[in-house]
Design goal:
With 394 residues, the chain is of the alpha/beta class. The protein contains 16 helices and twelve strands.
């Protein structure tokens, strides 16, 4: 029996082979907006979905470069197929616009990326979709927040920026019992450390801008699921047009080839940084799923095979102390985004999550003292030395 390939091999090889046109060893960038049909009949067959093939770069399967990327991500996520988007937000938008309609209810994790919060709270409500933000780390709360019209449960775990986790397997069961679909934003863990579809979720979404690309040089998004579910997104994908460009698809393919190497280093560096921060007198608390002090450590061990480079901590002295820290780093970059090879530091309450009303931020733990760190793949000692010198100036 053929042995199933393990994840490192999948990262390097899945979806790829010599290009059928000229045998190019690496996947070429098909920098084209359209494809020439052999004849009018073929064009009609492709439009009718009776013949597989490429049509126009906005129409799935977009281009051969996109097709390779999708096969690679779908393979890593253990899903059947997927779709690449111009950004993570375009991916999330396509999912909610496709699967929800007026009168439906969306139940979402209460702590999500700021623009996801805005999309759900301000934009979906304009179309008559009910939304509730729920502490999904509490299964009882999830159960008691279900409504007869709940159609979608959207989970972000670990959540941005509090690093709160929820039990994907249990909530997927709850969703099935209610007849709702369960969508998981897997951006923080990456498919290397967490596989929501294997835990029962229906759809995975990603910001490829983060660990998938890995080098802070592209914007992109992806969705993975069954062929049937991904097909149901097609009308919105075709008609809203937020698809990934071919160059970004190529960069994402190249990024994924080293995902396994990068994620191991991000995680081991993050663990070392937490050790330094936990022992530092100016730090009030540290939140990282790999620490036994994490409130959902048991869930972390159950559903994650490692814990990535994302962590948050509270600095004593609140926002002023945080500002001094962020203005004093030299190696780390003061920048939003995450999942890059270099270490990024930011202040969610005034940056990525500033649009969330303060009372909501306070209630959900996005406090003013919270500093978010995306630990890179530099040598850990240098990251720690930089944080140490910056903390000395606080
Ligand atoms: N999902 C999560 C968990 C995210 O953190 C982000 C972006 C998105 C989706 C959206 O992805 P994008 O459209 O940017 O590709 N998070 C960001 C952050 O924390 N800082 O800048 C962007």
């Amino acid at each position: 029996m053929k042995k199933e390939r393990t994840i490192g091999t999948q990262c390097v090889h899945a979806g790829e082979g010599p290009d059928p046109a000229y045998g190019a060893h690496t996947t070429p960038i098909y920098q084209t907006s359209t494809f020439v049909f052999d004849n009018a009949e073929q064009g009609a067959e492709r439009f009718a979905g009776k013949e597989e093939g490429f049509i126009y770069a906005r129409m799935p399967p977009n281009t051969p470069t996109h097709a390779v990327l999708i096969e690679k991500i779908a393979s890593l996520e253990c899903g059947e197929t997927g779709q690449a988007f111009s950004s993570g937000m375009a991916a999330i938008t396509a999912v909610v616009l496709s699967l929800l309609e007026k009168g439906d209810h969306l139940l979402s994790t209460d702590v999500v990326y700021g623009c996801t919060y805005e999309l759900f709270s301000s934009i979906l409500s304009k179309f008559g979709i009910e939304v509730s933000f729920v502490d999904t780390s509490d299964l009882e709360r999830v159960r008691s927040s279900l409504r007869r019209n709940t159609k979608l449960i959207f989970l972000e775990t670990p959540s941005n920026p509090t690093m709160t986790l929820c039990d994907i397997e249990e909530i997927s069961k709850i969703a099935k019992d209610t007849g709702a679909l369960c969508v998981v934003d897997n951006t923080f863990a990456s498919p290397y450390f967490q596989k929501p579809l294997k835990l029962g979720a229906d759809i995975v979404v990603h910001s490829c801008t983060k660990y998938i690309g890995g080098h802070a040089d592209l914007l992109g998004g992806a969705v993975v699921g069954t062929k049937e579910l991904v097909k149901s997104l097609m009308p919105v994908i075709r008609s809203t047009g937020g698809i990934m460009g071919p160059h970004e698809a190529w960069l994402s393919i190249r990024g994924l080839k080293t995902l396994h190497l990068r994620m191991e280093k991000h995680a081991s560096n993050a663990m070392k940084v937490t050790g330094f921060l936990e022992a530092h007198p100016k730090i009030g608390w540290v939140r990282y799923p790999g620490l036994s002090s994490h409130p959902q450590y048991e869930i972390a061990k159950k559903q994650m095979s490692g814990f990535s480079g994302m962590l948050s901590f509270g600095i004593k002295g609140g926002i002023e102390a945080g500002r001094k820290l962020m203005n004093s780093v030299e190696l780390c970059s003061l920048a939003v985004s995450l999942g890059a090879v270099d270490t990024l530091i930011e202040h969610p309450a005034s940056m990525t999550h500033a649009d969330i009303p303060r009372e909501v931020r306070m209630k959900t733990g996005i406090t003013d003292d919270l500093v978010r760190l995306s630990v890179g793949v530099e040598d850990a000692d240098d990251i720690i030395a930089d944080l140490d010198q910056a903390l000395m100036r606080v």
